[in-house]
Amino acid sequence: MFTGSSREISIGNLCLGGNQPVRVQSMTNTSTMDTQATVNQVIRLVNAGCEMVRITASNIREAENLKNIKAALIQKGINVPLIADIHFQPGAAEVAAQIVHKVRINPGNYTGSYHHNKSYTEDEYKRELEATAKKLLPLIKICKTHHTAIRIGINHGSLSDRILFRYGNTAEGMVQSAMEFIEICRRAGFHDLVLSLKSSHVPTMIKANRLIVARMFYAGYDYPLHLGVTEAGNGEEARIKAAAGIGSLLAAGIGDTVRVSLTEAPENEIPVARRLIEFYGRGKKTGPQVKVDFYSMRKNKSIGFPLVITSPKAKNADADSTLLNIEKEDDTLNNKDKIIRLSYSGIPYEELLLRASADFTRYTLHEKPAGIWIENNNHTSAEDLAALSLKILQALGLRYTKTEFIACPSCGRTQFDIEKVLEEVKSKLDDLKGLKIAVMGCIVNGPGEMTGADFGLVGSGAGKVNLYKRKQIIQKNVDIATAGDELLKLIRTIDLTNQ
Ligand code: SF4
After folding, report:
1. 162, 129 Cβ separation under 8 angstroms
2. What confidence category does residue 449 fall into, taking pLDDT thresholds of 50, 70 and 90?
3. 209 domain-assigned
4. Which helix (H) or strand (E) holds 261?
5. Do residues 325 and 417 share a domain?
6. Angle, nearest 10°, between helix axes 349-362 and 235-242?
7. Mean pLDDT of the 374-394 span
8. Which atom, in ligand 1's list, is nearest to the CA of 442?
9. How do residues 287-338 score in pLDDT, each as one tens digit?
């Protein structure tokens, strides 16, 4: 377990990092120009237990309107720290930094070039980094004057060309991107930093966060970490991804603030975040503990995927009965030989879902396990345990049994009802095992951040979406009312096998 402590910094009237509790945050999805709707949503979030609220500022006008939102909140006695979310627009960041308490910037798109597959000589790499520093310095200066913190928010799907060229779209690239921005801030004597390294791919998100902790440790740095799994979608699958990524890192003592991204009402994120912090925050495990046992699969090495086990008699939920050979073992086996059995004392299903996802992930960090076996003291049916087990395996990329959906949580840039569209797309495409389908709110970030998706539906304007096959646009400005059917048609006509 990571036992080092991060530095404490202030975000408005809230302290973050150090020995402070792990903080909960979320983001509005109203239009930032709609002051009243945004204020109302911030209030709902605060009432639900949210401690910091992020609001998108996609241009200078929206950044300026943060002043009205802040003033209206203060008038109502709400002093919650506000964070501006900035992509591509250094000017908007500089305006917002004079109003709100923290500014989130994305190093992958804060400066110039983006996904042009350029190559870089050593000299060009250095020069681009120097140009980046030059663009960032005015913001740092404003933040110093106004005591505004900066979140360096790295997203797996939107790394800069420079990073992609040298490191690829990897956890290592994410970490390098963060380190480069940290160095720029440090050279300017600025330390009110928070870092985030997010991905919709849970193992990548976990790896990036563990790596940044190691890199900071060796460099002697101690900046607080914000944890999140991006584009997790909605419902159980999203909660499982969040618990696997955020819960397992919190259990390892990593993380100072969290956001559980859901394509649902933002208020729904808060109880999930609170439960994860309660169960695992700062590495302390509270509540009824899980009993963990390991079983050997040595006699069944031909099995090519992690098995799902649901009964003590070793009957397999998906009718593969080769489990008769399992043996109780100690924990010295490699994970690839292990069936991991998690026994809970009969906890509610909503709790089981979070606990099993985080606990299983903790024991599978380094190798592919041979199987998952969840028990809940006869409080959960075998069918539900089997379904949950398969969803956890899929969230971790260990075994695919259904279509995988990724969807952004939406924000002020979204111009269609993303929750409704996601539900519609899910109901039409749920049985396309092995496919990854993205539903994204805007063309500014959507295409970049739907990393790895086979098909995507991305907001392109009011009530319109573009349809994608991998990174290529196939249809532009499709009416949202027919988008689900058009996407289904597209999927049926395109064979991805040789592409
Ligand atoms: S992809 Fe979604 S959450 Fe991200 S900026 Fe666009 S609408 Fe907002």
Report:
1. yes
2. confident
3. yes
4. none
5. no
6. 40
7. 93
8. 6
9. 667 888 777 665 555 566 788 887 655 444 443 433 444 555 555 556 566 7
CATH number at residue 201: 3.20.20.20
Taking CA atoms only, the protein residue closest to ligand 1 atom 8 is: 411
Report how far ligand 1's centroid is from the alpha carbon of 177 (Å): 21
**pLDDT at residue 316 in the model:** 44
Q: Which atom of ligand 1 is least distant from the CA of 408?
A: 2
Q: How many angstroms does the Cα of residue 61 sit away from the middle of ligand 1? A: 18
* Cα 380 to averaged position of ligand 1 atoms, centre (Å): 36
Give CA–CA dist 394/376, Å, rounded: 21
Residue 439 lies in a domain: yes
Both tokens assigned to 11: 């975000």
Answer yes or no: is the C-beta of 442 below 6 A from any ligand 1 atom.
Answer: yes
Residue 117 has pLDDT above 70, yes or no: no
Segments forming the whole domain that contains residue 142: 9-283
User: Same domain, yes or no, for 387 and 411?
Assistant: no
Alpha-carbon gap, residue 28 to 385, rounded angstroms? 34
Domain count, the chain: 3
pLDDT of 387 reads 93
Together in a domain, 353 and 470: no
Within a domain: 3: no
Task: Retrieve residue 60's tokens.
Answer: 């200078």
DSSP assignment, residue 115?
A: S
CATH of the domain at 415: 3.30.413.10
**27 & 112 share domain:** yes
Distance CA 202, CA 237 (A): 12
* Ligand 1 center–CA 439 separation, angstroms: 10
Mean pLDDT, range 191-200, rounded to an integer: 97
Tokens of 444: 């500014």
Helix ranges restricted to H, 410-495:
418-429, 446-449, 480-493
Strand pairing report for 225-227 and 257-258: parallel
| pTM, to two decimals | 0.92
CA dist list (Å): 306 to 352, 384, 400: 20, 18, 10
Q: Which of 32, 59, 414, 443 to mutate to test the pocket of ligand 1 (most atoms within 8 A of CB)?
A: 414
Task: Give the integer Cα–Cα distance in Å for 442 and 89.
Answer: 16
CA of 311 to the centre of ligand 1 (A): 42
Closest C-alpha to ligand 1, atom 4: 445
Give the atom of ligand 1 at the shortest distance from the alpha carbon of 444. Answer: 6
Alpha helices (H) in 23-121, listed in sequence order? 35-48, 60-75, 90-96, 107-110
- Looking from the CA of 337 toward its CB, the CA atoms found within 13 Å total 11
Strands 193-198 and 149-155: parallel
Average the pLDDT over 138-146 and give the result. 97
Ligand 1 nearest-atom number relative to CA 409: 3
Q: How far apart are CA 16 and CA 60, in angstroms?
A: 28
| Alpha carbons 253 and 249: distance in angstroms, whole number | 7
Q: Does residue 214 fall inside a structural domain?
A: yes
